Amino acid sequence: MKHPARTSRRTLLALLGASLASAPLLDSPGAAALPAAVGLDDPAKKEIAMQLVSSAENSSLDWKAQYRYIEDIGDGRGYTAGIIGFCSGTGDMLDLVELYTDRMPGNVLARYLPALRQVDGSDSHAGLDPDFPRDWRRAAQDTEFQRAQNDERDRVYFNPAVRQGKADGVRVLGQFAYYDALVMHGDGGDPTSFRNIRKRALNRAKPPAQGGDEVAWLDAFLDARVWAMKQEEAHSDTSRVDTAQRVFLRKGNLNLDPPLDWKVYGDSYHIG
Question: What is d(CA 143, CA 86) in angstroms, rounded to the nearest whole number?
């Protein structure tokens, strides 16, 4: 579900050196350290985050059933697959298969690496059809491929979202809002990327770490997120914000404490 035209970060790290691997992906306001508190990286909160994203990405709370998911949803990103919507056209699917192949040489997906490099940045299936979807589902039975999906999700999307959220002084809901935005929009340089959604919000409000009110900041961030979604037809349904994240915000549930009730695309979900 991410924006195209994103250079493979594994390729960048290989070119620029291992020291870059520890650098933060996102801007930091340089705020002072905050008191220790439960964050989205708490295991129970992280499980909630996975279910919330799965409700929007796969219309199911069973996010672990999505390791084998793969289809072309017609959004210009080629194949979308796995627990976080890795895309053949945006580089993160290539990163994933490279990682899996580093760990498990000769796996069933390794032979598609040249094709994945070729189609990166496009919606082409060249070199992938007709067997790539079948082989993806075969690979998804391998616990090592499942672990690789988890690790890439965390490296590229989850950990940067939590890191930026904590730097901004927002609690679990805010960290989740950042994560969901990163999942859909990535963090490139285009106007609808995560970092530019955040910059748009900064024109209206300040995060708590800069002396702002948390609710006002999250309202501004979600407004900017809705704007970004509406710039693209494939993402123009904003219910994952309007009838989910905004509902939690209006109730003052800044720590995403259950029970949680929300809707996405008109379907109702509940976590008790």
Answer: 17
Whether the predicted pLDDT of 229 surpasses 70: yes
- In the set 27, 41, 47, 57, the catalytic residue is 57
Is the CB of residue 85 less than 8 Å from the CB of residue 91? no
Q: At what angle do helices 172-185 and 159-168 cross, to 10 degrees?
A: 130
Is residue 74 classed as helix, strand or coil in its secondary structure? coil
Catalytic residue chosen out of the listed positions 75, 95, 98, 187: 75
Active site residue 57: yes
Question: Can you point out the beta strands (E) in the chain?
Answer: 70-71, 80-81, 86-87, 260-264, 267-271
Instruction: List Cβ<8 Å contacts ≥24 apart for 92-99.
Output: 92/2, 92/6, 92/152, 92/156, 92/186, 94/8, 94/10, 94/120, 95/8, 95/9, 95/10, 95/152, 95/156, 96/148, 96/149, 96/152, 98/8, 98/10, 99/10, 99/148, 99/151, 99/152
pTM of the model: 0.87
What digits encode the pLDDT tens for the residues 146-190?
999 999 999 999 999 999 999 999 999 999 999 999 999 999 889
- Mark whether 71 is an active-site residue: no
How far is the C-alpha of 272 from the C-alpha of 270, rounded, in Å? 6
What's the one-letter identity of residue 145?
Answer: F
